[in-house]
Amino acid sequence: MKNKIYLIALLSISSLISSCSSDDDLDYQNDFENSKKAWVDFKGSSNNSYKYVTLGGSVFTTYGWETTIVVSNGVIIERDFRYTSGAENFIPVDQLEWTENENEINSSEHKYTSASPALTLDEIYDKAKQEWLIKRKDKTTYFESENNGLISTCGYTEKDCLDDCFVGIIIKSIEAL
How far apart are CA 31 and CA 146, in angstroms? Predict the structure, then answer.
């Protein structure tokens, strides 16, 4: 009888421990998992070929920008960048927009620009889980999936930060090729 009680206690504790996972350390855990499932479905239906557009901007400079990443069969083949408005008075004309082809992506020529880094959506979902959605006491976390269930906003800001503090990604659109 004593052994049965120990066995039941051991099984109860084991199941309690196994039900706790590191995923519980994510903000928006359920929303993220649902979006990840939508991504897996989209990836399959699009043959892992798609393009997405990210948005950026600055309160200080009052202008914004867009970066378009094109992925074919899981490989990034193009990155386009352009300032969307207001930058023409501050940025040299030859830097207002540019395109990198497959062998030029993330080249040193465009290393220090406002362009989003060239990442696949697989890499974005990994960053979301490993960096952007981790629960932190001193941060406010954001997650939205307004691109047919796929990530649209994911990241965080410092709670006491006033301007230009967002760390993460804002995706305007995602389309199959």
Answer: 11
Residue 9 lies in a domain: no
Q: Which helix (H) or strand (E) holds 55?
A: strand 50-57
Alpha-helix residue ranges (DSSP H) falling in the chain: 2-19, 29-45, 121-127
Report the distance separating Cα 106 and Cα 126, nearest Å. 19
Tell me, what DSSP letter sits at residue 116? P
pTM exceeding the 0.90 threshold for the entire prediction: no
- Residue tagged 């993220």 (tokens): 32
Q: How do residues 117-167 score in pLDDT, each as one tens digit?
A: 999 999 999 999 999 999 988 899 999 999 999 999 999 999 888 777 899
Domain count, the chain: 1
Eight-class DSSP state of 134: B
The reply to whether 148 falls in a domain is: yes
Residue 133 burial (10 A CB sphere; 0-12, 13-18, 19+):
buried
Please tell me the distance from the alpha carbon of residue 16 to that of residue 12, in angstroms, as a whole number: 6
Distance CA 174, CA 59 (A): 25
